[in-house]
Amino acid sequence: MAHEDDARQAVPNMPGTRTDGVARRRPLREQHVEETVRVAVPVRTAYNQWTQFKTFPRFSAVVRGVEQPRPTVTVWTVGYGPLRHRFAAEIVEQDPDAYLAWRGLEQYPSHQGEIEFRPTESGGTAITVRMLLEPQGGARILAASSRAARLTARLTARLVRGELMHFKRFIEGLGQESGAWRGTIRNGRVQYEHPEPPRSRVARWPVG
């Protein structure tokens, strides 16, 4: 069996690698769900709007509310009708106009995902979402069967595809982003261009 490094070299643009060949993060497993949609707005516009997580309920069929207590942590409320589920997710990597990766902070089930933004020849944007659900306990045993795994993948793919189409109609209707967050995140930490100097622990007494 080939090593993971050999696989990365054979497929340089596989999920989880950058175009310069540097590993971005551990790539999603082969069983991930992948969906792509093309939107008729520039990459910057599409990316900027996507980072406005609190606007997701305006176009999503399942997202009911989003809170962002920290730049790298979002709390989502999703569901249909009276059914609601609340979970937190951490953004582990974010490159403006290019890439965003996250992982769920709950264990039952756990999930992870990534989204890529690429310019198209027509000046629009190709948005690709990859997700992986990892059931636990009894659900994990059930998902081990090929039929259950295929059903889970189909349902997840349908949901992701539908949400992408909702976003497409939303951003193309707006024509421009309603806001933006242009920060960079590495390993779950925001990277600041000008870090604050260390604060002195010596008390400053008033003078004069």
TrEMBL record:
Q: Which CDD domains match?
A: SRPBCC_8
Know the name of this protein?
A: Cyclase
Region (Disordered) location: 1-21
Query: Where does the record place the Coenzyme Q-binding protein COQ10 START domain?
Result: 39-146
Entry's InterPro entries?
COQ10_START (IPR005031), ORF3 (IPR047137), START-like_dom_sf (IPR023393)
Supply the Pfam families for this chain.
Polyketide_cyc
Q: Which organism is it from?
A: Streptomyces calvus
